[in-house]
Amino acid sequence: MIEPNPLAQKLEGYQLILGSGSPRRRMYLKALGLPFTVQKKEVDEIYPNHLQGEKIAEYLAELKAGPFENQLVDKDILITADTVVWHKKTSLAKANGPKDALEMLQRLSGDWHQVITAVCFTTKHAQQTISETTQVKFMDFSEAELNHYIQADKPYDKAGAYGIQEWLGNIGISEIKGSYTNVVGLPTHLVYKTLMDMVS
Q1: Tens digit of each residue's pLDDT (9 = 90 or more) over 152-187
Q2: In whole angstroms, how large is the CA radius of gyration of the chain?
Q3: pTM of the predicted model, to two decimals?
Q4: Whole-Å CA distances, 18 to 37, 70, 86, 164, 176
Q5: H/E stretch holding 120
Q6: What pLDDT, in 10s, does the model give residues 123-140?
Q7: Which residues contact 197 (CB under 8 A, 6 or more apart)?
Q8: Which of 140, 150, 134 minimizes the C-alpha distance to 108?
Q9: 115 with 160: CB under 8 angstroms?
Q10: Catalytic amino acids?
Q11: Pair type for strands 37-38 and 76-87
Q12: Hey, how many other C-beta atoms are within 10 angstroms of the C-beta on 53?
């Protein structure tokens, strides 16, 4: 007989809400064995210019929780998140098209960058935000390799114009320091620990 999932047991009676349309985040919450619903509300992802690195991700994760403020009831736990690709003091957001994606990936080629994911946990009475940073180094890419990836996978919905779980990540990560799931879009070890602490 399999022992029950300790976190799922603790969350009995709670309503976990994922405020994200990301299929990667849905996949990881499901992999944690947690029941949840998905509710996504659109926000303009605009942040103050003085913010840098993890502060951008944290601000945007909290911003995404804003539209839910008056609808949460007792025992609701809302999870919102944002991922930032940070390279040489610049945030590389989602690409506007093939040309923009190519320029971003050429900047990252052969160099280190940081992938920062912030996760915001909001209840009716409180809010806390965590973040995780992973160091990623790409090999040198040819323009042909980048164009193949962009045309095949169309990574326009991803920060930095790439998904580590896709073709480019499979052929091009020469080094990684930190959480892999964080680069995909959700630092699952921190999500698990935070939820365990919240309902203990």
Answers
A1: 999 999 999 999 999 999 999 999 999 999 999 999
A2: 18
A3: 0.94
A4: 6, 16, 25, 22, 27
A5: strand 112-122
A6: 999 999 999 999 999 999
A7: none
A8: 140
A9: yes
A10: 82
A11: unpaired
A12: 15
